[in-house]
Structures are given as structure tokens and as C-alpha cells.
């Protein structure tokens, strides 16, 4: 499974790179804090897979990295995705490194 650090994600965001960010946490978690990605909770990720781009870089995150790893494993196994990356440490690591007040 490919992964990306929060520092690498921040560089992509600042450079304006073309990628898709998917948040697989629950609605209430997203409402509390988010990185601006598309919300597709883990329980619905297979059913909602048509919202996930197969033709560009896709970074998937959750709170700490476990649910996003599960989402990637499911999408790769059941839907044939090859362009997915897991955000190491999830949103907790991102907030720890950069905060959310940008």
C-alpha cells in the first residue's frame, strides 16, 4: 500500500497539484474538523466508489490511518484501484504538524 506523509500532502496542497482527497471518517468527525476532502465514510466506500477518481492521484485519510488503510485495501481488492495513497497518521498528524487555521 502506498502512503504519503503529512508534509508531502501539504506540499501538494500548496503547489496546486491535481489530486483528490477522500475523508473516510464519519459525518460528525468531518463536521468537527476536516481537510476539505470529499467525505465518504468507510462503511459506504465500496458503494460510493464511483465518486473516487481512477485517473489521478487519490489520497485517502481518516483520524489516524487505520480506517483509510482498510478503505484502500477494499477499493484495491474489490474495485481494482491502483492510484490510492494512505495519509500516514491521518488528520491527527496533519493537525499536529500544521493546525487547521489556513
Automatic annotation (TrEMBL):
SUPFAM superfamilies on file: Rhodanese/Cell cycle control phosphatase (SSF52821)
Signal peptide range: none
Pfam family, any one: Rhodanese
Matches recorded under InterPro entries: GlpE_sulfurtransferase, Rhodanese-like_dom, Rhodanese-like_dom_sf
Gene3D superfamilies the record matches: Rhodanese-like domain (3.40.250.10)
Domain Rhodanese, first and last residues per copy: 15-99
Identification of the protein by name: Rhodanese-like domain-containing protein
Organism expressing this protein natively: Flammeovirga agarivorans
Amino acid at each position: 500500500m502506498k502512503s504519503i506523509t503529512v508534509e508531502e500532502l501539504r506540499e501538494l496542497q500548496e503547489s496546486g497539484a491535481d489530486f483528490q482527497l477522500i475523508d473516510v471518517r464519519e459525518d460528525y468527525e468531518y463536521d468537527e474538523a476536516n481537510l476539505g476532502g470529499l467525505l465518504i465514510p468507510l462503511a459506504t466506500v465500496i458503494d460510493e466508489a464511483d465518486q473516487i477518481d481512477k485517473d489521478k492521484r487519490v489520497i485517502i485519510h481518516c483520524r489516524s490511518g487505520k480506517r483509510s488503510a482498510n478503505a484502500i485495501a477494499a477499493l484495491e481488492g474489490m474495485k481494482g484501484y491502483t492510484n490510492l495513497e494512505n495519509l500516514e497518521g491521518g488528520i491527527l498528524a496533519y493537525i499536529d504538524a500544521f493546525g487547521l487555521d489556513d
